[in-house]
Amino acid sequence: MNAILKLKTKQSEFERTAREVMEFKRIEDDARASRVAAEARLVSMVEARDEGTIHEEDGGVKVTVTFKVTRTVDADRVVADWNSLPPVIHDAFVWKPDLVLKQMRALEAANPDAYAILAQYLTAKPAKPSVKIEEVA
Q1: pTM score above 0.70
Q2: Tell me, what's the pLDDT at 5?
Q3: What is the rounded average pLDDT of the residues 85-102?
Q4: In angstroms, rounded to a whole number, what is the distance separating the alpha carbons of residues 121 and 115?
Q5: Start-end of H helices in 2-100
Q6: Which DSSP category does 64 fall into?
Q7: Beta-carbon-side half-sphere exposure of residue 82 (alpha carbons within 13 Å)
Q8: In degrees rounded to 5, what are phi and psi of residue 101?
Q9: Confidence class for position 3, pLDDT limits 50, 70, 90
Q10: Does residue 93 contact residue 78 with C-beta atoms inside 8 Å?
Q11: Helix 112-119 and helix 101-110: axis angle, to 10°?
Q12: Residue 67: beta bridge partners?
């Protein structure tokens, strides 16, 4: 027989914990889907609006539904047209610098002096580690 048989009699603590995380993630995903469906039912029970807030009370519960519109700015177009826009339009925009991580890392690796200047404008703090678990055969 050419097949290699994997015989496992006992799971390691690592594998048990990984499987526990997978199960909790499944439960969490199912619970989230149920919550989202219930919220959609609640939203369907109130007067729809484009934007604004509605408060509804019934029995012992108060529900607040906030309707929102997401607006995005075509920044390249605004920059290109900036000088031809009336000043009153200028007041509708706020400019905020964003970090281009690829360029920052390139400076850090290739030009430590330039990176030292850039670093004065940055604050770094650890983020939550990401965990991905997959079944393997």
Answers
A1: no
A2: 55
A3: 93
A4: 10
A5: 13-44, 75-81, 87-90
A6: E
A7: 12
A8: -60, -40
A9: low
A10: yes
A11: 130
A12: 52
pLDDT at 16 over 60: yes
Q: Which two tokens stand for residue 110?
A: 């290739």
Contact 37, 29 (CB under 8 A): no
HSE-CB for 71 with a 13 A CA cutoff: 6
Tokens of 86: 């009336």
Q: Which of 55, 77, 57, 74 is nearest to 66 (CA)?
A: 55
User: Residues 103-124: what's their mean pLDDT?
Assistant: 96
For residue 137, give Cα distances in angstroms to 6, 25, 29, 132.
Answer: 10, 20, 24, 16
The CA radius of gyration of the chain, in Å to the nearest whole number, is: 26
What pLDDT score was predicted for residue 97? 87
Which amino acid is it at 17?
A: T
Main-chain phi, psi angles of 52, to 5 degrees: 125, 175
CB atoms within 10 A of CB 4: 5
pLDDT digits (tens, 9 = 90+) for 50-83: 999 999 999 999 999 999 999 999 999 999 999 9
What is the structure's pLDDT at 131? Answer: 85
Q: What is the DSSP letter of 23?
A: H
